[in-house]
């Protein structure tokens, strides 16, 4: 369940920077934030948008996929649980789940259970499968427990039926259907494996730029004012060990600024930040998932 305690040391990469003006003050961004973030402030997934829209799970997998090879690193053992965390947050952002209400006796985020808010199907196979499991479980479980169950990382044999299987392959198939990736067969001497090389480099570059902008040109220096989906993307990209893939093209100076701000985010206490907000059930789930990965 636990993610790596620190961020990886950056590999030396000589690449052009897209952020020569990183050190301009965040105040310059504030003057135009209302216009620039008008689309990002919409937490609901817009299924009718003409632009290709990706779920959090698809974005994390896309960041982890090698462009030409079409598969994630064999050494990455974090992305599996990270994708399950994405599923819980995606369900929360779509108004399907929330944390149980606080009673007279206050509970920590790690002890509050995830409950069904709406059982209306989302139209996404993975999300609806997870939603069905959550709906049928009584008594409810915590987000941390659900990440373990959906990953199949539990000692309880009765909970193994909740495991979501072939998640990466199913997400890759979705990316193929959206025209982002293609499908190929690759021989690895002892076995053949289906791979999904990048087909739409422009969309992935746009995703990478969005992640970079969030901690550089569009840095707001206040996590509570960040877009919920974008904040989740940063946290889950780190928990899935794919955040480095978005930052590696940066020049050294921009990279140091980006990583310092990410460390600031990772150092925040979920309990404290969640207590600052009221009436936002989706944000509570986000912080509960973050707390689960912080353990």
Automatic annotation (TrEMBL):
Which Pfam families does the UniProt entry name for this protein?
Answer: GPP34
Compositionally biased spans, kind Low complexity: 24-35
What is the name of this protein? Golgi phosphoprotein 3
GO MF terms on file?
phosphatidylinositol-4-phosphate binding
Q: What does the similarity note say?
A: Belongs to the GOLPH3/VPS74 family.
Entry keywords, A to Z: Golgi apparatus, Lipid-binding, Membrane
Q: What does the record say about its membrane topology?
A: Peripheral membrane protein
